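All the exercises in this workshop are built on plain-text protein records. The record below serves as our worked example for the rest of this section.
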Amino acid sequence: LSKFLLGAIRDVRKNELDVDRATVISQLADKYTKNEMMRCVKAKLLEQADSIDVKAELNKQLLQKT
């Protein structure tokens, strides 16, 4: 991804790529990066969810005084 973006910057400097197209490339890279970050966060959350004893948590909530 970084090589692709560096190539796009080079092309803009050489006037081989207009700024509008470079902006779109940059936005796509941002979206890709955000998606990858969310994938990692979701995986981390799922790992933590596996360690939670759901049945015990439900019982705790049901037995709690209101």
